[in-house]
UniProtKB/TrEMBL annotation:
Residues 248-276 form the 4Fe-4S ferredoxin-type domain. InterPro entries: 4Fe4S_Fe-S-bd (IPR017896), 4Fe4S_Fe_S_CS (IPR017900), Cyt_c_oxidase_cbb3_FixG (IPR014116), Electron_Trans/Redox (IPR051684), FixG_C (IPR032879), Helical_ferredxn (IPR009051), Ig-like_fold (IPR013783). This is Ferredoxin. The lineage of its organism: Bacteria, Pseudomonadati, Pseudomonadota, Betaproteobacteria, Burkholderiales. PANTHER family: FERREDOXIN-TYPE PROTEIN NAPH. Keywords: 4Fe-4S, Electron transport, Iron, Iron-sulfur, Membrane, Metal-binding, Transmembrane, Transmembrane helix, Transport. SUPFAM superfamilies: 4Fe-4S ferredoxins. The chain crosses the membrane at residues 31-50, 81-101, 153-170, 190-207, 331-351.
């Protein structure tokens, strides 16, 4: 007799994603979020089209290994500035997070910005929240196909424009545009336009809140930068509970929360802020705007959901007392370090000369005695004119009696040119000690006294 087959149960390791249909929020915080959207996108899309000294104002020319940032020209040797920039960004993130939580995530993060733009296009094509929900439940028909096609076409065009602009920071955008119109982009240019466009389309159109919840590491370690005086989006549980619907003209023992769920409907990550602070919250303040609108309608004070601190909520602190606690030791330390690094970077850039020189000895030819009895050493000077004007430079040497240049001592370099210049240096026989002697090369622009560099070297006298 055959035994019945055992029942098979499926245990899901991960919860299936529930589609989120954020309602459009209007209010003070939503307006500021759109201000950030406009500012960041005007800078991103507009910057490559600006001209400076007859070239693109901001261009990271990887092929030529030159990085143009308005009047500044950086070379691979200036990589330290990139490291310092990353350090500044890290400390700024620590500072903003310590003061106001995920301020970056809610207002200026590219994922937030592009998701906001994509959702705006979605609302314009498919309608508001309820219309989108109805559309998704409808069977496929002409109307649904037309709206879905139009939405994805708009997303793809915008994403490709974004990818094109991104590549325009690394390849002159004028030439890039002409090549695109002629469909003659290089293989790497095609790859990065399509790759960055695909990433924008996928992240902002499809993945959305999943990037913030599962892919972004910041969501996981943000709590280490929080303390009881960090501003976060908070639901006032004492004032709001017990929640429930009520009539405006009837007395009730319920709290101010009418359980309308508007705070949930406007949340881009789909959380319920009334359950307390969660790592999914990006601090955008959309729930604050929605709740304040509802409070106005029911005749209750605003601020049932608001930016406040753990100490502020626990001890019923006034806004003035909360602001006073902002200047606490952690914030002061972050601010001091950040200001010192910024001052150091700008001070270094201000004192930076547009001339770089590296001295390399000719290892195939040590010190030697030439036909006239002089001792000669051969060097190669790597001279970089990082200025955007051509200059003539005079090369001189010092450090030993009678030491002098035995080769051409004037060299002309075009704007932003780097050249290896072979030089021969001689001194009279008997001058200097046997072995190595310290000398100094000086390279100085003939038309600019501030453009000069001194570099140490070694002169070998045969034993």
């Amino acid at each position: 007799m055959n035994e019945p087959a055992p029942k098979v149960s499926v245990i899901r390791m991960y919860e299936a994603r529930a589609e989120i249909y954020p309602r459009e929020a209007k209010g003070w915080f939503s307006s500021w979020r759109w201000v950030c959207v406009w500012l960041t996108q005007i800078v991103f899309y507009g910057l490559p089209w600006l001209s400076w000294n007859d070239r693109q104002a901001v261009l990271f020319d990887l092929a030529a290994r030159k990085f143009y940032i308005f009047g500044l020209v950086l070379w691979p040797q200036d990589f330290i500035y990139l490291a310092l920039l990353l350090i500044i960004c890290a400390y700024a993130l620590f500072l903003f997070t310590a003061i106001a939580g995920r301020l970056w995530c809610g207002y200026a993060c590219p994922q937030t910005v592009y998701t906001e733009i994509f959702m705006w296009m979605e609302r314009k094509i498919e309608g508001d929240r309820s219309a989108r929900m109805r559309l998704d439940k409808q069977p496929w028909g002409a109307n649904k196909i037309a709206r879905k096609t139009a939405k994805h076409a708009a997303w793809i065009l915008f994403a490709l424009w974004t990818g094109f602009t991104f590549v325009g920071y690394f390849s002159p955008i004028d030439e890039l545009g002409r090549s695109l119109l002629a469909l003659s982009l290089g293989p790497w240019e095609w790859f990065w336009v399509l790759f960055y466009g695909f990433a924008t389309y996928g992240n902002a159109g499809w993945m959305r809140e999943q990037v913030c919840k599962y892919m972004c590491p910041y969501a996981r370690f943000q709590s280490s930068m929080f303390d009881p005086d960090t501003l976060t989006v908070t639901y006032d549980q004492k004032r709001g509970e017990p929640r429930g619907a009520r009539r405006k003209d009837q007395p009730t023992s319920l709290g101010d929360c009418i359980d309308c769920t508007m705070c949930v409907q406007v949340c881009p990550t789909g959380i319920d802020i009334r359950n307390g602070l969660q790592y999914d919250c990006i601090g955008c303040g959309a729930c604050i705007d929605a709740c304040n609108t509802v409070m106005d309608k029911v005749g209750a004070p605003r601020g049932l959901i608001r930016y406040t601190t753990e100490n502020g909520m626990r001890n019923a602190l006034s806004p003035k007392e909360i602001r006073r606690r902002t200047m606490r030791p952690r914030v002061l330390v972050y601010t001091a370090i950040l200001l010192l690094i910024i001052a150091g970077v700008f001070g270094s850039l201000a004192m930076r000369t547009n001339l770089k020189v590296d001295v390399i000895r000719d290892r195939g030819s040590m010190g030697r005695e030439v036909e006239d009895g002089m001792i000669e050493n051969v060097y190669r000077l790597q001279i970089m004119n990082t200025d955007e004007r051509p200059h003539r430079f005079r090369i001189s040497v010092m450090g030993l009696d009678t030491i002098a240049m035995a080769s051409e001592d004037v060299v002309e370099l075009a704007a932003t040119e780097s050249r290896a210049v072979p030089v021969r240096v001689r001194t009279a026989h008997g001058k200097g000690e046997k072995g190595s002697n310290k000398i100094m090369f000086e390279v100085k622009a003939l038309d600019d006294d501030d453009m000069q560099v001194k570099e140490k070297a070694v002169f070998i006298v045969p034993r």
